[in-house]
Amino acid sequence: MNPYRVRFAPSPTGSLHVGGARTALFNYLLAKKYSGKFILRIEDTDLERNTKTALAAQLRDLNWLKIQWDEGVSIDENKDFGPHGPYRQTQRLDIYNKYIKELIENNKAYYVDSNNDNSSEIKVANKTGKNAVKIKVAMNKDYEFFDLVRGHIKINSNTLEDFIILRSNGLPVYNFGNAIDDYLMGITHVFRAEEHLYNTIKQLIIYEALGFSPPKFAHLSLILGHDKQKLSKRHGAVSVDAYRQNGILPEALINYMVLLGWNPKDNTEFFESNELIHRFDESGFNAAPAVFDEKKLEWLNSLHIRKMPDKLLFERICEFDDSLVASANADLIFKLLPIIKPLVSNLKMIVNYINLFNDELFKVSLDIQTESDISNLKAVINLWYNELLTFKEEFLSREQLASVFELIAQETQYSGKHLFQPLRLAVLGTPNGLDLLKIIPLIKVDSLKFRSNKVLNQLDAVVRT
Ligand code: GLU
Hints:
Elements: E1 5-8, H1 18-33, E2 37-40, H2 52-64, E3 71-72, H3 93-105, E4 109-111, H4 120-125, E5 133-135, E6 142-147, E7 151-156, E8 163-166, H5 174-184, E9 189-193, H6 197-210, E10 216-220, E11 223-224, H7 240-245, H8 250-258, H9 273-279, E12 290-291, H10 294-307, H11 310-320, H12 322-327, H13 330-340, H14 347-355, H15 371-389, H16 398-412, H17 416-428, H18 436-439, H19 445-464
Parallel strand pairs: 1-2, 2-3, 9-10, 11-12
Antiparallel strand pairs: 4-5, 5-8, 6-7
């Protein structure tokens, strides 16, 4: 049996879309599963739209997802690697020309005579004055293949006319370059998006004309937005980069993407990246379109955040917000993580929580309606501040803290939210829900004093205005 060889062949015109990333992921997983090779090559013949920046962004995103390729392109083209290069179509033009020549010599393709053919496609092709090349399509012939997702597919050639394979600018069309590359690179299986289903017929015609045997094909299900239209920029964040910036973990995005067009038999939804290679297989492919559900992605993200070892999560947080590396105290973050993890669904939320503990970022959000609110707040915070002044220790213990709370409760006769909201404000600047008994012992007494003082000053300012 042929060694398993699969590929991802993006046209890098922009950043990596989740649809492309899903294609790359499925190919990668199957290559790993069957000890095969995963090839990354690029289809860069659209000279105006393909940019170095887009390629660099796509490679960065694949690396971030840890979808690693065994052969193919690098950011620096001198570092492209593997035995079947070049891996960029613009560097393979001689190869395409050789096969074009062969097809013409064998009477299977011909130069287009622009005088005899007025189709707009040819007018464009002849812009440069040179002739484009068309491949001959047999009449009324059935082309068939077994699609690993969709089963038996048959399309009659009468739905097609002879079609261009080489443009007058010397560049191959997608179907031609793609078929030649797949053949020469020894690709055994093509897993790609459903939108290419019809192209497969054109590629089969090309394979047949050249006497090549085609690879196996699998057309993955469409990915739709919530409105059941094909997922696109209209749906907001659809690029891998946008999800990264929204604080999604690569592990969670991988987990979510694997469920787009694939089902494990037992309805498991949570997958760790390293188990996927064993769990993933072609029998779980689903032909029905998949609807991209942001909420589910966020939910999976929260599960991954909870399950991830703190050390790794810490790395992910620092990658996500590199300003944290410089400003934050790693010790404190490790103590906070177990408290914060159950409350968040993305890394942005984690960073926001961590920033609450940075004195330099300490902000007071006052939302006070009446003067009596202010005097209540001040009563509690003043007592709290005065108690803090009596401590010489660097940190309060839980016991010390409990007795301070007790004392303030007795003096003010407040309990519940009347007691704890002012204290939250004094400690974190916002009346949010972190458990004070857990977090205050993690904050230096000096910092607690600084914070209370700032809140009191701000309350005074409100009273004066
Ligand atoms: N460049 C094509 C795309 O990005 C590749 C399709 C294929 O895998 O054959 O859609």
